[in-house]
Amino acid sequence: MAQRTVLVVLFDAVQSLDVTGPVEVFTGAEKHTPGTYRVRTASLDGAPVRTSSGLTVVPDRALTAARAPDTLIVPGGEGSRHPDPRLIDWLREHGPRARRLVSVCTGAILLARAGLLDGRRATTHWAYCDRLARDHPAVDVDPDPIFVRDGRVATSAGVTAGIDLALALVEEDLDRDAALTVARHLVVFLRRPGNQAQFSAQLAAQTARRAPLREVQRWISEHPGADLSVESLAARAGFSPRHFARAFQAETGTTPGRYVDRVRLEHARRLLEDTGDGVEEVSRVSGYGTPEAMRRAFVKALGTSPAEYRRRFRPAPVR
């Protein structure tokens, strides 16, 4: 297997974890399987850059001296919002030469400005998805997943999602064992698929202003297998069902039914990932009632069955 060069672009006010997260993953994979990756960093003029958190990073070389890499990684950060035009020109010229083009967080904005995301599906940090879609209408922006693959181009959401994407690329290049070894070394889980949402149900929904509705949100999260019909939840809050449904949506930004669906899906996924409980038991305690009902929910939301989800995303036992 030929050694793959991974080149990470640096610029002033870059987000440090957008850089170091993928770098640690690929260098970890090189340690696990020597001869697989050669990780390098480069800035426009080869000069040190100061990250958005104040750290100074010394690149290996200037971008003008860098050869076309196998994988080109473009991180995000404050500097991606007002980039040096020379960086955009370099990406426009050299980005197409890489076998694989990757962005972390708002690095997607740099790729879009270089025209490298036109006609492609992409994501970025949730706070900048609207801006990316507005400023670059030729890009199909999906604000939900933690990372998106579209052919040779991969884009990821904020900060730690770059680690998830890098682990997925290592698994693709090498094998699952190599990616699991790196994940264990970094004390992260190799189990966040790209279609996992950037937010959990509790984070995606707003916290209700009124105490009775906040209590209902807590109850739903702690009792996914209970009767979570609108009538039951309304009674717990002391509202009529109609008033409860309207108030819940007004204060959380989602309907009770959608909130319950998301909580149950997350609960079932955690059980499939973290326990050896059978699918029938998981479906029962997660509120689906039957394995078939849970299977339909998984296929609709994730495009895979519970059994396949467990096979792909439950970490192997540490030996």
TrEMBL record:
Organism, as annotated: Streptomyces rochei
Listed GO MF terms: DNA-binding transcription factor activity; sequence-specific DNA binding
Family matches, as CDD domains: GATase1_AraC_1 (cd03137)
Name of the protein in its database record: GlxA family transcriptional regulator
UniProt keyword Transcription regulation present: yes
Sequence ranges assigned to domain HTH araC/xylS-type in this UniProt record: 214-312
Keywords: Transcription, Transcription regulation
Organism superkingdom: Bacteria
PROSITE patterns in the record: HTH_ARAC_FAMILY_2
SMART domains reported in the protein's UniProt record: HTH_ARAC
